[in-house]
């Protein structure tokens, strides 16, 4: 229940020393101003409801609502961590409206709000309480927000920290605070801008302009003035943190631009920051299972996940779900297409290695496989995805056709740290066991966009020096070039004659920058004997978030014995070696790809 006197003394304990008649008059006036009796009568009747039902009852009581277009609704991500920032024109009702809007798609939503609202029992579950009166209280609030984002929740924030006021430019938020940016950076959470329409009474703006605290005290009364009203909500596209974190802008400037972005949404205009569309909704689980029953099973993991080989088809729920999960996964590391799903024309003629969790009805991860010989016969070199990033024409295709192009590999975030990538490699080994003619594995390997620029340069410098192939004629269409400072740092860091020692130094340097060596960069080198894997070139993929890709090629015949045993099998490995030897003469990586 709402107790104004208790809240007042909790926030301003010195009032307890005032004369009783003064304190009593103040409390009585505040009780009338905040409608304490009406609020408590409402709480007595509906205080045992869940938070979502409680909000619906509030809206029914005030005959209040909001409007939202289906297009804007699609911009709300159905899963994954996200910071939702909005202007704050009304008070409690706009916060409840945002909670209700987001909850239609995801009940995991939370909102940063005043700790006074914890007195409303149904809302305690969704409120991350804010106490801005002390530095320690603010720090605790920030840690709560970070914790919620680390649980992959959606968190609503009003960066102004108070209700909008009237000014020369109209009703606008005051200065936005930067705490939410710190939480977003800590958790790599994208930002979803929302504009909330509506306004309070002229009396509110007049009094708050003269005495700000008085305006705040009037907010409960203003809520009762919102009867029979609907406010428009406008949801913009997601702003990836990588695009928001421009080094040439200070934090105050970024906050001003983001606030401007929100108000431009309210006027139906294009925002300031480049944004992405909302990710598509999940596909029906039973339909996924039905389609995958027709896929070829290559094996099963110890914990019951199935490794399947799937071919694309028209109107495929499986392909739509793969595209959705790719986009979710790649956006988490600063990449992605910016579309609802990451799908392209290559998916139609490539095969798809899928790790299927039949218990949870989830695609845990997938690999895209391009059978080079068949693709060359049907579509030529342009049928290979790598040709969009690298100029492949000089390659000797008589040898290259015994290859398998790999790409678009992902493990969705829900399964990170559960050996899913290793399971995909077991699936790849099962494919190689059935196709012993495959000699080469190749494809673009991405460096996450979230890595600092210098970290990317150090990584590329190391792999070019120790695992590059300077003789190849394959060239990137948009080369990744080291800056002069980056080249100097590479030369300072690497000794140049000890790959293991320099790798240790590389990892230490990346760790100091909050980064690490991408898993596939380590994996492709670790599975083969020295010289069995080479990075031929590094290019920038403009169609995939301007990420940096290294074109790797792996000689299957040079797999380490223990890796062959793990992924392909002892007997299968010996059989595969005999079949490959009969199919083509032994050649080096360089000769197969450019000499």
TrEMBL record:
Q: In which pathway does this enzyme or protein participate?
A: Lipid metabolism
According to its UniProt record, what is one Pfam family this protein matches?
A: Acyltransf_2
Which Enzyme Commission numbers does its entry carry?
A: 2.3.2.30
- Substrates-to-products reaction catalysed: a (3R)-hydroxyacyl-[ACP] + L-ornithine = a lyso-ornithine lipid + holo-[ACP] + H(+)
Q: Which GO terms describe its biological process?
A: lipid metabolic process
Where does the Phospholipid/glycerol acyltransferase domain lie?
Answer: 82-199
Family (UniProt): Belongs to the acetyltransferase family. OlsB subfamily.
Q: What does this protein do?
A: Catalyzes the first step in the biosynthesis of ornithine lipids, which are phosphorus-free membrane lipids. Catalyzes the 3-hydroxyacyl-acyl carrier protein-dependent acylation of ornithine to form lyso-ornithine lipid (LOL).
Protein name (Swiss-Prot/TrEMBL): L-ornithine N(alpha)-acyltransferase
